[in-house]
Known about the structure:
The chain is an alpha/beta fold. The chain folds into 2 domains: 40-289 and 502-523, Aldehyde Dehydrogenase, Chain A, domain 1 (3-Layer(aba) Sandwich), CATH 3.40.605.10; 293-486, Aldehyde Dehydrogenase, Chain A, domain 2. Helix content is 37%, strand content 19%. The protein has 13 helices and 22 strands. Strands 15-16-17-14-13-19-20 form a 7-stranded mixed β-sheet, with helices on both faces. Strands 10-9-8-11-12 form a 5-stranded parallel β-sheet, with helices on both faces. A 3-stranded mixed β-sheet has the order 1-5-4, with no helix packed on it. The N and C termini lie far apart (54 Å). The model is unreliable at 1-7 (pLDDT under 50).
Amino acid sequence: MSTASAAPFKITYSSANADLTQFHKDFDAALKLARSKSGKKHPLWIDYKPVESASEPLPDYSPIDGSLLNSFAAATAEHVDQACRSAKKAQKAWGALPWQKRVEIMRKAAALIRERKYEIGAVMSLEVGKSRMEAMGDAEESADLIEYYAKNITDNNGYVVPLGKLSPNENTRSVLRPFGVFVCIAPFNFPMALSTGMSAAALLAGNTVVYKPAQDTPWTGLMLYEVYRDAGVPVGAFHFITGKGSVIGDTFWKHPCVDGIVFTGSKEIGMKMVKEFSVNWPKPALMELGGKNPTYVSETADLDMAAEGVMKSAFGLQGQKCSACSRVYVHEKVYDAYVAKLVEKTKAIKCGDPTEKDVFFGPVVNERAVKTFEGAIVSAKKGGKVLVGGERLKGGVFDKGQFVAPTIVELPLDHEIFMRELFVPILAVGKVTGIDQAIAEGNRAEYGLTAGIFTANKDEIQKFFDEIESGVCYANRRTGATTGAWPGVQSFCGWKGSGSTGKGGCGPYYVTQFMREQSRTIME
């Protein structure tokens, strides 16, 4: 557990204009602590017992310098079976607990995250390549997600609602009850917040969880497991499984004891799950599947605000956010002036080791991401122009890790990069005649997660919100044109190819998706 003192304010992805002196001092101490805990081999954790695997362990490398942080056991199908059957057995007792008791336990988990947030943030910085602000925002959001979902349940009296009567002696109520066992499959980019949000909602609803962190971020996932264990989540209710998706992936979510899936990741894998999961009857498959998020800059926009907001959204976490702004449609009257400001701000980005306090932009997560970046640059040069970046960074720390430059490409609107999700720091810019064309181009993508607009015209804002096919919309947001959703502040809901249910995380309807309704009538 980190012994660092608490920050005097809450760090979010949009924090600005605060005195960070103590924050950086505490983060430095947490980095030292995290590094002292590296170099270990970690088992699976089933029924809160360490489980070894005969398979070759999975190395956990830092994208910053390629160093081996730790190694983790690689689960087999037999391990998955053991965890799923244990979760099924434990669910009855966990689901039968009064909802107030589950809320109490989970609020303890939130408190533990806050106690350990500096160490959690330091681990994410080393393991993912997050900047200090991104890493601490991830940790803070994790605790807020638990507390917000717990508040949802409390405010709704555990989702028990009296219903009407057809006769005087009829007593009827609606009760939301858990489905049973959920598998939780998390991504690398928000390894604490998304893992916590998905699993906490399932647990609060009375389900048990078998959890698999992303292969690139098992250490952060282990810290979440330790939080739940120490908070008092009972034996059997949460299991920590690491392994290769190619080996255990289908076994994991197709197990007969599994009643639901909650997944954040690629559209390709998510759609496979949606199509193949329900066999004998429909089962819940909660999917968040990425984005290709547009921003429109109008002729009345504050260009400096728009340039800063897009830069932060495009290049925060090296563009590896499903909410990242990856395409900008700029009114032709201000195109040249706006692009000049955007390029200027992008050139000023401090790139380097993201564990250092003044670095905004670190490495991409692995060599596969580098290859995706390089392939996209080749494509962009066919019919387009690289305005800034476009290369792998070299020299010093850059030679050791997975570093590519923040990149802006100018492209014709029909170029394939305007439509394809890349998950690397490449921002496409194009010229439009006005808001109608911008909305039409924005809606051409198969995704519909986030969208932004910069304009001084209130009618344009309303039109954009009404017509853009995105679940999360922002107007005139300097701290992030399309990024920075926070629990209870912005619901994070994907439309079209970005999500499966039409109700998103961070919002008031999320927890109910982990429950099914039962009406209960008693004649008195």
